[in-house]
Amino acid sequence: MRTKNSIYNVLSNLFIVLFQTIMLFVVRTYFIKILGEENLGLSGLFTNILNILSVTELGIGTIISFSLYKPLSEKDTKKINALMNFYKKFYYLAGIIIIVLGILIIPFLPFFVKDYSANNVYVIYLLYLINTAFIYFVAYKEILILSDQKNYKLTNINFFFMLAMYLLQIFVLVKFKSFVLYLLVQFIITLLQKIFINIYITKSYPEVDFKSKNKLDKKTLKEIKDNLKCLFFNKVGELLIFCTDNILISSLVNLVSVGIYSNYSSIITITRTLINSIYTAVTASFGDFALKADGESKKVIFEIMDFVRFLLYGLCTIGFFLLINYFITLWIGKDYVFNKVITFIICLNFYLMGTQVSLDVIKQAIGFFKKDRFITLIQAVFNLVLSIILGLKYGIVGILIATSVSYIILPCWNKPYLIYKYIFNCPVKKYYLKEVLNIFVLVIIGIASYYALEIINIPISIIGFIVNVIVVTLIFTIIISIFYFKTKEYKFLLDFVIGRIKRIINRKGTPASE
């Protein structure tokens, strides 16, 4: 059942994210062409500011999800009721705090948007604030279906409402050319989507009393509070790392640069979301598995997940460095393209962030929050200080380099060390050596792909882009096979893929019953 739910969740997540990716590119194209790069920069800036405010959530969703694995497995309805009641109250409080803090920030907006020419900046900001805060009042039930490994059942609802929102946003952009109406559409459709999801979850879990006044026992409450304290520092650190670049670029460079950078970060974020959706889909299943597995069994599963992570992030990193400027030029024009140095640093940060994905799955599934609770916060403070210092001297290049340095100095070595020591109970040396080999192989693939594209040298066109993608993918596949064909992870994936293909062929070849 774990495997079945994981496959359903992965496929549904991939479908939704792929659909969302395509539609976001379409909507973003209309947004850029109609509202311009200045409004694009404003959108990226306000999104980052409000993401920072969401630190009030403290990572409670991760903790409640972990806490729900066991009672769901044991069908302990009383415990589930108590957890959902606690989660609802916490989410309501987080929403209220975000609204208050968001309002308090209003007097400081001119500091961040000093070069914005339009006069509706406060209305736009308030709409972003409402869009961010109201989620906390209507979305708390989703944690239940996610922890129960059945979030694939929400696919139809999510698809319908996302399609409606994107089509209406395109309509108001073309018809009214209004940023305000664009945001109102987002708010109304998202609100309706969450209402329908709430109704569906309530009907799907009739045994759960969402109005229950059940309270958590002292032991569980203490565990949640302890984990919250640990995860708080991690949450603050993550938000400072992921959400300060646009603010710093706007303050130290200009709003137009934020708009250009946001095109790259949008493509990167969409890709990260697509890849991470696979891992999000299997986290609950791994958490259920981890309740019964020993350290060695967890390690075997982790190494397979980490190899898949390397393949996905490695291919995308090489592809981005060689082709992202090509794509953006084809998409919206060469005026929205950075030079190769900035592009390289953006791609490096993408890969470094990707190294954390499979490690974070282990942490969240096991509830491993305490040992490294300060690492992300220390990294964030270091990143922020270095970003300001280098940003003042080198502009956007300095801000992005600071992020690279902060990852290399702290989480890339510290997080795997702690996980191998305390969860797998074995030395971490092989992991480090494997990661060095991974980077070495990516450098070889990058050089080979670069010269291959130089040789074919296809002019910018849709066909040219597709051919270049195929060339890079083929070179990546060949070189990866040469270096890794003897590893157990490669053999496992190859056997898995071949087995799935055979099963599909056999299913199609089986005559239908009379």
Structural class by sheet pairing and helices:
mainly alpha
Report the C-alpha radius of gyration, rounded: 23 Å
Low-confidence stretches: none
N-end to C-end Cα span: 30 Å
Helix tally equals 21
Mean pLDDT: 85
Shape: globular
Question: Mind describing the biggest β-sheet?
Answer: none
Q: Give the amount of beta strand, in percent.
A: under 5%
- What percent of the residues sit in helical stretches (DSSP H or I)? over 70%
What's the β-strand tally?
A: 0
Q: Can you write the helix and strand succession as a string? A: HHHHHHHHHHHHHHHHHHHHH
Notable characteristics:
single chain; 514 residues; mainly alpha; 21 helices; 82% helix; 0% strand; globular
Structure description:
The chain is mainly alpha-helical. The protein has 21 helices and no strands. The protein has helices spanning 2-53, 60-74, 77-105, 109-112, 121-133, 135-138, 142-147, 155-176, 179-204, 218-243, 245-252, 255-290, 295-332, 340-354, 357-366, 375-394, 396-409, 411-422, 429-456, 462-484, 488-509. Helix 10 runs parallel beside helix 16 (375-394), helix 12 runs parallel beside helix 14 and helix 13 packs antiparallel against helix 14 (340-354). The longest helix has 52 residues, at 2-53.
How would you summarize what this structure contains?
The protein is mainly alpha-helical. It contains 21 helices and no strands. About 80% of the residues lie in helices and about 0% in strands.
